[in-house]
Design goal:
The structure holds two protein chains of two kinds. Chain A has helices at residues 3-9, 27-36, 57-66, 82-94, 124-136, 163-178, 192-202, 219-228, 236-244, 248-263, 281-288; strands at 13-17, 42-45, 71-76, 99-103, 152-157, 183-188, 209-214, 269-273. Chain A has an eight-stranded parallel beta barrel, surrounded by six helices. Chain A is of the alpha/beta class. In chain A, strand 1 (13-17), helix 2 and strand 2 (42-45) form a beta-alpha-beta unit. Chain A has one domain: TIM Barrel (Alpha-Beta Barrel), CATH 3.20.20.220. In chain B, 26% of the residues are buried. Chain B is α/β, with parallel strands linked by helices. The mean pLDDT of chain B is 94. Classes of the chains: A alpha/beta, B alpha/beta.
Chain lengths: 290, 224
């Protein structure tokens, strides 16, 4: 079943983020993918996330697809101008990739090549527009294409937004839907009580929302998230649970698992972000019963 | 100097249409010198606006006031009382001045009457040319005083690109001199061609955050 069919069926979807390696050795990534085969609905492959130079989403997606995995190709606005962005979408389509997650991208100053020029020739709305036009058979300047690519288009939303930022987020979501978005990935959710009001506020859009679940590997990491990740907040109860646990890994899986259980009635799926704990995902899926 | 040009009249009129009483604030700095936003241009634009709204039968009044510069807060003080009587402000300063004006009077809608186009020089009366992209990494000392960032279509630090015509023009337009052709010519005259052989590393763009600068002598004064 493709990711799109899964979403259309209304069944709960599970995606896992696999970060491409910094280099061309894919052996570790293949090992993780093998563990997930048949257990998750899609592998989401980021594109130069956090502005760290690494192997690209396009090659990783193509290679995983050849191994029979359903993949979500990512494309970001930060490092390519409109020619390259449109060409990359055609590349993806020519290589048989259907699911694309179009993202704004991170400023290079955050990453490991901080002096790089931030491109942002198009913003994510511009990129969504480009994808829309390509699917209609034209490029951004209105030139005819030979062949029409077809995609299932995803975009990101910040479901932990509050107050004024939340209002902005809802407007942005509406705008993205008008630009043809078929599904949304949220940033990491740690607190269901913050997610619920968001979901209620945007329920009328009737567009699938896939909630991000990051494995909290330690108390230190949870504190770091609270301090440095804009909009994210790990509740004290989770910090306590992690602090008291003798087996931190087990506790981390239970925390993520309980979050997934609580989110299940609220959204159409989750994306698990393992950050180095890829091998723990089968245990997490077992815990949740997925 | 920062060079600006007035926006198309219809665009300015469209921005003004929902207001009844507007103050057009001119700038006596760069935009006055480049004949786009000084006292004279404020008067001309106001007359055009007044006539156009009158023709439409709309109730509209625009007054003008030109301050020394819109990029220094001290010069705004004389405006503080005046702006209270207006629904909106139109600014004929560069983009920096417009933002400074908007910051000073956050409850007043502020609109730009100009497009800020570049940092440049006077070629002749009323004729301006871009000469600097404010890239924060000046290489003019190595390139014979000709800026490859501004004047090369690819902003190459290690040029030329291979697209120079026999006449020394750029492949982008036969009217545009190739910056690196010009750099080569000048360095040759100065017997400094070895500069071209030096490999210039990829430049630090740092175009992601708003720039701030405190001159060395003032660092203590603004230290937190």
């Amino acid at each position: 079943m493709t990711f799109k069919e899964r979403l259309d069926s209304g069944k709960f979807a599970v995606a896992v983020e696999l970060q491409p390696p910094k280099g061309n050795d894919l052996s570790e990534l293949y090992e993780y993918a093998e563990l997930l085969k048949g257990r998750v609905d899609a592998i989401n492959v980021p594109d130069l996330q956090n502005a760290i130079m690494r192997l690209g989403s396009l090659s990783v997606c193509t290679l995983l697809k050849a191994k029979g995995m359903e993949v979500i190709y990512n494309l970001s606005c930060s490092d390519r101008n409109r020619l390259a962005l449109q060409s990359e979408l055609l590349n993806a389509s020519a290589l048989g990739l259907k699911n694309v997650l179009l993202v704004q991208g991170d400023p290079p100053s955050m990453g490991d090549h901080f002096e790089a020029k931030a491109v942002f020739d198009l913003d994510v709305m511009g990129l969504l527009d480009a994808a829309k036009r390509l699917q209609e058979g034209y490029d951004l300047t209105g030139n005819d294409l030979q062949g029409k690519p077809q995609f299932s288009i995803g975009a990101q939303i910040n479901a932990a937004a509050k107050g004024h930022v939340l209002d902005l987020e809802v407007l942005e979501m509406e705008k993205k839907i008008r630009m043809g978005v078929d599904f949304f990935f949220t940033h990491s959710i740690y607190d269901v009580s913050l997610f619920e009001p968001f979901v209620k506020k945007v329920a009328h859009f009737k567009v699938p929302i896939i909630a991000g679940i990051t494995l909290l590997k330690s108390v230190g990491m949870a504190r770091y998230v609270n301090k440095h990740v804009e909009g994210a907040s790990v509740p004290d109860s989770i910090l306590d649970q992690l602090m008291k646990a003798s087996d931190k890994q087990k506790a981390s899986i239970e925390i993520a698992g309980d979050l997934i259980k609580a989110l299940k009635p609220l959204c159409q799926g989750v994306q698990i972000i393992p950050i180095g704990w890829e091998k723990q995902i089968p245990a997490l899926l077992d815990y949740v019963g997925l | 100097m920062i060079v600006g040009e007035r926006k198309p009249f219809d665009e300015i009129k469209e921005m003004m249409k929902s207001f009844k009483k507007v103050l057009n604030v001119g700038c006596g700095g760069c935009t006055s010198i480049c004949m786009a936003g000084g006292q004279r241009e404020v008067g001309l634009l106001n007359e055009e606006l007044q006539n156009a709204f009158k023709r439409d039968g709309a109730s509209f009044r625009v007054d003008g006031f030109t301050i020394e510069r819109q990029c220094n807060a001290d010069f705004f003080s004389e405006l503080d009382e005046i702006v209270k009587g207006y629904d909106a402000l139109l600014s004929m300063a560069c983009g920096a001045g417009v933002q400074f004006l908007a910051d000073r009077y956050p409850v007043k809608p502020v609109f730009p009457a100009l497009n800020t186009v570049f940092v440049g020089v006077d070629r002749d009366i009323g004729w301006f040319e871009e000469n600097c992209r404010t890239c924060r990494e000046c290489v003019l000392g190595e390139t014979g005083g000709i800026c490859p960032v501004t004047r090369c279509a690819k902003s190459l630090f290690n040029g030329p690109c291979g697209g120079t015509s026999r006449e020394g023009k750029c492949e982008v337009s036969k009217d545009t001199p190739c910056a690196w052709f010009e750099i080569h010519k000048r360095l040759k005259e100065q017997n400094r061609l070895e500069n071209i052989l030096k490999l210039k590393p990829a430049r630090e763009w740092r175009n992601q955050t708003q720039g701030t600068l405190v001159q060395e002598a003032y660092k203590k004064r603004y230290a937190k």
